[in-house]
Amino acid sequence: FRNKPSFHYVRYGNKSILSVGGIYHSAEKLKYLFLKIWQYHFHFLFESYGIRIKKIPNNYFTFLGYTFDVQNKIIAIRAKMLEELPETSLINKELCSITPILSLIGLLAREGFCDALGHPIGKLAWSTLTDEGIFNRFDQIWRNL
């Protein structure tokens, strides 16, 4: 029995995100079909480097509003020998956290950097701060995280 693919589409500003549930190969096929339809319908060649496919892991967990997952980090090492330089790889697992955007926008809004929608607020007083003042302000925000 085959899983039915699921599609989710989100548009914000000039950016669009299409989420495809399934395997990587089906996402590549969808990317190819999208480029062909775009070229046929608009008579305009769309560059494929503008479309990125990012694999979202299935083994994530959430805790206190944060999303955590374990990702493999590949480190390439060259071992020096007499004539050749073979390349080997080490794979380390590291814990990665994703900060939820709404809580981050809320924090920046409380500090006066943006409004509740995430739009930045510029103040003339910020441009005249000394280096020590900038570091103190950053330290204050960091402690509130």
From TrEMBL:
Key words, A-Z? Chloroplast, mRNA processing, Plastid, RNA-binding, tRNA processing
Q: Where is the Maturase MatK N-terminal domain?
A: 3-65
Q: Which InterPro entries match?
A: Domain_X, Maturase_MatK, Maturase_MatK_N
Pfam families given in the database record:
Intron_maturas2 (PF01348), MatK_N (PF01824)
Q: Where in the cell is it found?
A: Plastid
Q: Which GO terms describe its biological process?
A: mRNA processing; tRNA processing
Q: Where is the Domain X domain?
A: 93-145
Any single GO molecular-function term of the entry would be: RNA binding
Task: Briefly state the protein's biological role.
Answer: Usually encoded in the trnK tRNA gene intron. Probably assists in splicing its own and other chloroplast group II introns.
How is this protein named in the record?
Maturase K
Query: What is the originating organism of this protein?
Result: Sphagnum fallax
Gene coding for it: matK
